[in-house]
Amino acid sequence: MDIKVLPIKVLCEKAENITEKVAAVITSSYEVDICKLEAIEYKIIFDFADTKEKNHPQAFRRLHAEEIKEFLENLPNDIEKLYVCCDSGESRSTAMAAAITRYLNDDEMKIWKNPKYHPNPLVFCVLARVLGVGVTPVELKYREWLNQQALKNAIKNS
Length: 158
Prior knowledge:
alpha/beta
C-alpha cells in the first residue's frame, strides 16, 4: 500500500477524481466537508490538536491510536493507496504516516528526512507504540535531529 501525505483541502479537491481503491486517515482542527470525501469509501476522521504536550486537553491520545490500528487492520487487502491528511500536511499527518510506514515495514526515514515535513513527536510515539513498533527516546531524538538537519540543509541550499 502506497502512503501519501496531503493537506485535507487537497484531498477534498481531488477526491471525486480518484479512480483507484483508496483509504484515508484524516485529522483537522476545522469542520471537514464530508460530502467532498464521499468517493473515499474507507476513511476515519479525527479532531485533535497539533500539540506535543501530552497533557493538553485536545492532544492525540491512545484511544485515537487504537482506532487507527483497528481501521488499518480492517482495510481490504486491495487498497492501493492510503492518504494521511491534516490541515497543512506537515506535522500530524506526517507523524501518523511515519508510524504507519514503520508498521508496514517500509522506510519511515523518507518522512523524517524530508525538509517539508515536521512530524509531531507525540503523535508519532503514541501511534507507533500502539502499532507495536515504538521507538526509544534516543531513537526519537535521532529522528527529530534528522528532520532538523534536513530543514537546515534545505535552507542553506536555497
